[in-house]
Amino acid sequence: MTMPRPLRHALALPLALLLLPLAACSSPPRDRLAGDTPPQTVASVDLDRYLGRWFEIARADHGFERGCDGVIAEYARREDGMIAVLNRCWKDGLDGAGNTAEGRARIADPDSNARLEVSFFGPFFGDYWIIDLAEDYSWAVISEAEGRYLWILARNPQPGADFVDARLTDLRARGFDTEGLIFPEQWPGIADVPPAD
């Protein structure tokens, strides 16, 4: 688990989350405690299964999503071989003003498809590393090389407390500081999400 149009408060995940537009140009506090070793990505990602809609369940704090709730990231194939990224969020609650950001992603590691780069403006790309992924592609965890960003994404906006506890336990075991994670308000169900403009 982002930028222009209106870039102020939308998500860059992270997935995604996804997730990431300023990763190349800003240096927020590190969310990893395990030194300088980059987080391990998953061995392989089937991008066609990964595409579609993701809900942001948790994120590390960073300026470009400040105040965002109901955060959604949607990914789709583009004709030029890149991936279209559509991020949406609602400011200060699900009844707040909606913000949308459109970007694009490219594959940085074609051997695994687990490392992507996302851009929401100009030539600037930020890392989007898939560091954990459910076998059925029902959830994913996103970070980047220096562990400065962190998102927990799921296909269901309400995956439940057991799911969250399991992800947090695993992240702590991998050296991430989860104390400051933000858990945005999410939609009660998939059918409750307003249609995109």
Question: Brief overview, please?
Answer:
Helix content is 9%, strand content 32%. The chain has 197 residues and is mainly β. A hairpin with a 5-residue loop joins strand 2 and strand 3.
Provide a descriptive summary of the structure in words.
The protein is mainly β and 197 residues long. It has one domain (47-192): Calycin beta-barrel core domain (Lipocalin), CATH 2.40.128.20. It is 9% helix and 32% strand. The protein has an eight-stranded antiparallel beta barrel with strand order 1-2-3-4-5-6-7-8. The longest helix has 13 residues, at 161-173. Mean pLDDT is 85; it is low at 1-29.
Task: State the CATH architecture.
Answer: Beta Barrel
The largest sheet, given as strand count, sense and whether it forms a barrel, is: 8 strands, antiparallel, barrel
Strand content: 25-35%
From the alpha carbons, calculate the radius of gyration and give it in angstroms.
Answer: 15 Å
Mean pLDDT across all residues, rounded? 85
Count of discrete alpha- or pi-helical segments spanning 4 or more residues? 2
Q: Give the helix/strand class.
A: mainly beta
Helical amount among residues, as a percent range?
under 10%
CATH superfamily: Calycin beta-barrel core domain
First-last Cα distance: 21 Å
Strand order across the largest sheet: 1-2-3-4-5-6-7-8
